[in-house]
Amino acid sequence: xxxxxxSKTLIVTIFSIFLSIQAHAQFELKINPIAALxxxxxxxxxxxxxxxxxxxxxxxxGSEVLYLTPSFKYYFNPSEKGSNKxxxxxxxxxxxxxxxxxxxxxxxxxxxxxxxxxxxxxEIGTGIGRAFNDYFVPYARFGVGYRFNKK
Length: 151
Description:
Elements: H1 8-20, E1 27-31, H2 33-37, E2 41-48, E3 53-61, E4 66-75, E5 85-91, E6 94-96, E7 102-115, E8 120-131, E9 136-148
Antiparallel strand pairs: 1-2, 1-9, 2-3, 3-4, 4-5, 4-6, 5-7, 6-7, 7-8, 8-9
């Protein structure tokens, strides 16, 4: 399989596309403060499709790892704030890690998101996936961020 490395330009481009689509919908920007303790940047952007569904993109980057993980979330019983509480997700891990193997796969997870009155977001989730080249891909999410309301 051909080795592929992500560039900083690719990450900035994907992140910019996600930021540009937020104009008319609920949009969140979150970081994982625990990942920073291990010198890994974990940034998440999420866009609500409607009250029950959203799409998001995780960017996880460190000295030996780089993952982009787009996912789809379904919220079972959101409140009037929309896209919060318990959810189920399907995700596609795309990335490379310390031995420069490239992987693409599919996975499933679950989590819970709380949105405060001042739109501060707290999220925790977990899941597992499998890459098409037989690697198991564990998935963990802890995010703190801000929700930008509908315009």
